[in-house]
Structure formats: C-alpha cells, structure tokens
Known about the structure:
With 525 residues, this protein is mainly beta. The chain has strands at residues 15-21, 30-38, 44-51, 61-67, 78-79, 88-96, 102-109, 118-125, 131-141, 150-154, 159-165, 172-178, 182-189, 198-207, 213-221, 226-233, 248-249, 259-266, 272-278, 288-295, 300-301, 305-306, 324-328, 333-344, 351-364, 367-370, 375-376, 400-403, 408-415, 421-428, 449-454, 456-457, 460-465, 471-477, 482-488, 493-497, 504-510, 519-523. It has two domains: 121-413 and 425-429, 6 Propeller (Neuraminidase), CATH 2.120.10; 450-523, Immunoglobulin-like.
Amino acid sequence: MLNISLLALTLCAGTLVEPFRIAEAEPGHHQGCLRTAMASDGRFAVAWIDHPWITSYEQGDLYIRFFDPDGDPSTEAYKITKAVDTNRICGSHLDMDSAGNTVLIWTENPELVPTNEVLLRLQLFESSGNPLGSPQTDHQGYISTSNRAVGLSLSNQGEFAIAWTWDTGGLLCARRYSFEGGPQGDPFRVHGDLPDRVCSHYPCVALSDAGDLVVTWHEGHKSGEGYPRFQVFDAEDEPILPWEPMGHRVDDGGELYNGDRPEVYWLDNDRFVVFWIDCRTGYPEPSHPAGRVFSDRGLTRHPIRWLIWIDSLRLAHGGPEGWYSTAVSPNDSFAYTHIRTHYDYPDEKLRTWEHDGGILGYIQNNEPIRWTNLFEYTPPLGADTINSIINNYPRTQPPAVACCDDRLVWVYSRLNTDTIFEAFAMITDWDMGVGVAEQPPVPVTPVTHWQITMSVGRQIVLRYADSPQGFHASVFNAAGQKVDELHSTLTGGTVEWGDGFSPGVYFIVPETQGAVRAQKVVLLR
Length: 525
C-alpha cells in the first residue's frame, strides 16, 4: 500500500507568468474586492476597489485594467467615474465575452448604512479595453450593500443580463441588455413573494448564446439555515422548468443542512454547471465546495460532486458572499480558489498567515471531476509580508480566477509590511504539476472495515461495512492527481469503479479511522 501523506505539495510546472502587480495604489490605500474575466485568446481584465482602510464602509474608488495574454498591460488603470464623489462602492461584477468585449457593473451607496438610494451602475468596454461612453445608472432603490450584491453574465451574441435585489423584502429580479442597444424590456422577478423570516441574497446569472437565462441565489433563513436556489428562463423570460415560487433547490432538498452562494455557468446551450458551498454539518464544522451539472436546459439533474472534502487550513469561506471564486473554460475545464490560513504562536501571540489555494477539474459524463489536489499558488510568506489580521485591521481579501482553454489568471491581494493589501496576478496553464497538499483528513463518521475484492480488472469492486453515514473514498492516478470520488449512502455493501477511465494504475483512498492509506488497483482494457 502507498501512504498518500508522503506525497508533498508541488507546483513545479505550468507557470507562464510569475506574479506581478496589477497597478500602483494610492498612498496608504488597499487594493481589494478583486474581480477578473478572460477572453478566448487569453486577454483579461481585472477590476478592484482602491480604498483607505478605516472601516468597512469607507469610501473608495473602482478601477479596471486590461492585459494581453502575457500579462502586459494594454491599458492604464481606468478609474470609474462615480455618480457622486462621496458615494461608497458596495459591490462589483465583471464579465468578458470570447472576443474581449467587457461589462463592469457595481453599486454605489451614498450613506454608511443601507438606504433606499443605492445605485446600480454599469460601464461597457470595447475589445481593446477602451470605455464605450460614460457610466450608466440603471436602477435606483434598495440593493444589498454586500460586495456580492449583483450578478452579471455576458454572452457571445452581444447580450448580457444582470440580477440584483429588488426591494427590502429580499426579492430578486433580472433584466436583459443589448451590448449596443441598452436595456431590453423591463426587469422581471425570478421568484415569488418570500415568507416571513426568509430572504434572498447574492444573485448569480448565466446567459447562454441561445438566450436562456439561469439565475441562482442563496435563500437565507432567520434560523441560520440557507439553501442554494435557481430558476431557468427562455429567451422570452418564461420559465423552462415548472415555476416554483421559491425557486428550485440546487441540492435536491433536505440532505444538506446549508448551502451558500451558488455560482452558475453555461457549458453549452443545453447544459449548465452550478458550484456552491455545502455546509452539511453546519457551523463550526468546515464547509465543502460542491458542483452539479444540469442538462436539458435544467430539466435533468446529474449527481452532486464534492470537490474538496475538508481543508484543515481553510479559515472559512466567510459569509455567503465570499471568499471563493470559480471559472469555467469553453472546453469544460474549471478552476476553483479560496483562502487558506496558517497559524503560529511566536511568544504566545497568535499570528495568521494567508495563502490562496485552488483546484482544477473538468466536466466528465456530466459530472464535475476534480483532477488536481489542493495547491497553493501564491508565493511563500516571508519578511515582506505580515499576518493578515491585527485587532480587526485589516481584513482578508478574497481571490479571483478566470480562464480560457489554454491558460488561467489567478488574482489575489497580498498584505505587505506596511499593512497595505496589494493586488497581484499570476498566469498559468492547465498542466500545473500538482501533488497532494496535505494528509487526507479523517471524516466525522469513518469506515471501520473495507476491502477491495478485485484489484486488477475492467471493474474494481470495493466492499465495506459498519459505516452509519455511508462510504466515501478518493481515487488518484499514478501521478498523484485526484481523478474521482466515490460515494455511497448505504451503511454497508459494495461500490464499483472504473467505467469511463483509461487503463492503468490507480490508488483508492477511503476515509477511514486511524492512518489513511491507499490501495493500489489496476484497470485493464
């Protein structure tokens, strides 16, 4: 047997451009609330808020900058003109089509507390990165002041869609736009009236080239529970699935205790994929990124896949609005990133050092499959960086990722010795040479007895027993890359594996009590 814990984190291949600064900040200012998007040829844009750090409601300015595929700036940092100089930038979203046309949306709040005067604004950019006209104000009214308060999706047909909170009751609405012709029709509600003690947050949208629109959101309950929801609409804004006043559950219903902020992407004009954070056991237990593919324009559900079972170094994903980011390429590959936190106690004082970690995967047989293990792509923390939190000053900044078929850009903020967050980007390809990041964890309810009854063959058969919460295992290829996960909800029985995978040597790692070990298996033709 192979002890998986002997494999160490490696990131020895795949870096195309070493980390570089996005732009210089104003003296004494942070660069945070990062967003990024990429065209099919690798050109990309980064948006960020430049602000002094006094409180989370401090005034700031929104910037955007465009880069070529090699990370060289193609524009200067462009400062967005606010409606009023004193307005606070509350949230932003950024999307780019395959040709490089770009939409940036954001909200502005003139007060330090939520009001009914929040503005939803947008700015268009042509493929060269030059702005098209001046910023437009599309809506004035109640919008959440979260930094994930609005959703945006730009198709390759010159159309885009926006979703936002319609009123203080938490209702969400969506609206379509032409890149050249402005709003197309009136805003429409994506769900019905909400019952007492229920609200909707953190909308995300995906617009297909055929004009179908998926809207996802987090349904929050005053009891502390929350669920990922979605609705699908055709080009006429009519529901494709049977109308559900509260929306459809992404996660099938009651098997999950909680699920935060779903993100959605069309894979083609028939299928879309949703990623969300699965908090199955609830706070303070860790949460897990999950993914699910829907086909037939949402009518057919495929199995849920958990992408990271447990990351013992994850500080948290924050509230439902952060701290993770996903991206999907046209060839159905995907990337996910979140913040990992390392602790030490020099002189009995707590210090926290933060890195940004990620995984890569692909859609296979209508299921999101993680093919790397968790890796860290930010440089080692050293003399030029300090701990991330000192007496609540300043806060962690979420990372962002964007991709095309042959490259990715990872964008993150790094805290230096002047206690200033500086925005960096790093460009990689999809072949990042990633090994195992840490020893696989022990689950809450482990399997106590298991065996592989056939270790060489066209189909591998695993038999297990005494597992009240079922069976969970990971499958690694000979290079140490995770290629699949096995799940069963039965307390005992058999699990078969091997269909759809190439012949070769693999290692199956169950989640068991005690030491975590792997069984070598061989698939034949």
